[in-house]
Amino acid sequence: MKILIAGGFGAGKTTFVRSISEIKPLSTEETLTVASVPVDSLDGIPDKKTTTVAMDFGRRTIAADLRLLLFGTPGQDRFWFMWDELSRGAFGAIVLVDTRRITDSFGAIEFFESRGIRFLVAVNQFQGAPVYPESDVRTALALREHVPLIRCDARTFQSTKAVLILLVEHIVNTRREEDAARVAAPLPSGSGARYDV
Amino acid sequence: MLTGGRTVPAVELGLESRVATTGNVAPEKLNLEHAKAWQLCQYPTAVVEIAGKLGRPVAVTKILLADLIKAGAATTLAANLIEPSSSYDLLERVLRELKKL
Questions:
Q1: Would the ipTM clear 0.90, i.e. be above it?
Q2: DSSP one-letter code for B57
Q3: CB–CB contact B101 A59 (8 Å)
Q4: pTM of the model
Q5: Are B15 and A87 in contact, with CB atoms under 8 Å apart?
Q6: Are A34 and A50 in contact (CB under 8 A)?
Q7: Do A62 and B97 touch (CB under 8 A)?
């Protein structure tokens, strides 16, 4: 099961991967070919370019035949569209948020929403960082009601495990609702999984 | 030169594709860089993990692994990724095992 861990620079992605992985997180680079219009281009002619992105990889065996593959992905850049390639086959995603740099996670949220990749937001509660009410964080992120929001401490195994469980539960519940909606009458709008965190 | 100037691997591999050695080719017959990659896939191992351990970009690693596969020294296994559309039985099992961790 492939799970993406996204978020801004310094949001705790590597720490999160380290807390759950059974191997030391591995850092590697992926070279992506992209058709892009360089920002400094005056003629606006699309150009084929390659860009290198760094990522962290970790894994966790949860049963003899079941493994979590964890990909910590850079999210602070403007190349979100390239993530199509890297997110192929992903089960879901976790967007880590540092409340001191909340805007850093906009790119990741926008990307997963636009690609229909299910995700949740995990606020990595750094020591000394302000603790905002959930509703304020939701508003600041323009987060839709159905997206779960959870607080976590990316440094601890128990906390990262809780985030992963919530993600899988959310995705399974969403699937159940969609399946139910397909057989029965359409659900009233606004119905959806709600989580109290 | 690591990849002989090639940028496209001879066999298509994904980030999560697993590669394992076959035992059909003696590692002494491989050059150093291929032998290092070969060492890292004694058990089925994901391409991204091999790249990380090799300390090479994924693109370079894919070329090296594809060479091993073409030479018969390694083989690739499907990643078998679980998706949100996988069976409920499987998804429920993932949840149970996760909670047991």
A1: no
A2: -
A3: no
A4: 0.84
A5: no
A6: yes
A7: yes
